[in-house]
Amino acid sequence: MGKLKYIVSALIPLLLVNIAVAQPYKFKALVVISRSDDHIKMMTAAKPLFEKLGKDNQFKVDYTDDSSKINDGNLKNYQVFVMMQLAPFDISNTQQAALQKFVEQGKGWVGIHAAGLTGTEFLAKNTKYWQWFEDFMGGVVYSPHPAYQRGTVIVEDHRHPATKNLPAKFEISDEWYEFDKSPRPNVRVLATADELSFKQNKPMGDHPIIWTNEKYRRMIYIGIGHDPSVFANQSYIALLRDAILWAGSK
Question: pLDDT digits over 129-159, tens only?
Fold first, then answer.
């Protein structure tokens, strides 16, 4: 009897480990990054962070710079698409159509920084413009950003799951993307850039920097995120985590 008790006690930890390993992920997220050199340091630093966020919060992360993964067949495997520094003009018309279908099916989309480069400024000649994406972003067009500098983010909506754990304001260094106008009439603004805290290229007055377009089930754009320094900011990490969790929620 003593020997049997010993065997059972030895097996219990192994069984618990196997049960823990067998626990399913809540959802799968595909993170597609740009191949541009402009944000390579940030994208390199982001990979281990995404993997840790996934491990700590029970979602699976696939991280790639291969935009050919943006197709109907592959996207069926995911509940969240993270557009990490990947600009809309970085992907082909076929890939754009697949991503649009993914979003319109009610799946989650998290766009970070350069994902918001709407407009035709960087569009290659004779390339079809993705007008749907401009509308998706709230009908705004990107305009040249000011110099990289430290500034303040003001959180104006703590009711949203993506911003509920953020302080009233936090400082961060970034490029502070500007647009031809505020998207506010067409989106739900979660946070704005405090234009009193940095020098603008062309003041917007009302300067949203994080928002969601509620015409789509799970869409959020995060305008800040230029370089790896953002990952030393606990507010930014909390924002990224909660945005992905919300995008992947049922």
Answer: 999 999 999 999 999 999 999 999 999 999 9
Give the span between the Cα atoms of 193 and 172, in whole angstroms. Answer: 10
* Predicted confidence (pLDDT) at residue 17 exceeds the cutoff of 80: no
Taking every pair of Cα atoms in the chain, the longest distance, rounded to a whole number of angstroms, is 81
Q: Which residues contact 1 (CB under 8 A, 6 or more apart)?
A: none
Q: Give CA angle at 65 (229, 232), nearest 5°.
A: 15
Q: Distance between alpha carbon 142 and the CA centroid of its chain, in Å?
A: 18
SS3 content of the chain, % helix, strand, coil (to 5): 40, 25, 40
For residue 83 the two structure tokens come to 């557009």
The residue written with tokens 């710079």 in the block is: 65
The closest alpha carbon to 139, from 17, 42, 221, 201, belongs to 221
- E strands within the chain? 27-33, 59-64, 80-84, 108-112, 142-143, 149-155, 169-174, 178-179, 188-194, 208-212, 218-222
Place 8 in a pLDDT band, splitting at 50, 70 and 90: very low
- Dist. CA 89–CA 120, nearest whole Å: 9
CB neighbours of residue 17 within 10 Å? 10
φ, ψ (nearest 5 deg) of residue 82: -105, 115
Assigned token pair, 156? 């104006």
User: Which residue from 220, 215, 221 is spatially nearest to 246, judged by alpha carbons?
Assistant: 220
Residue 35 CB coordination number (10 Å): 12
- Its pTM stands at 0.90
**Amino acid identity, position 197:** S
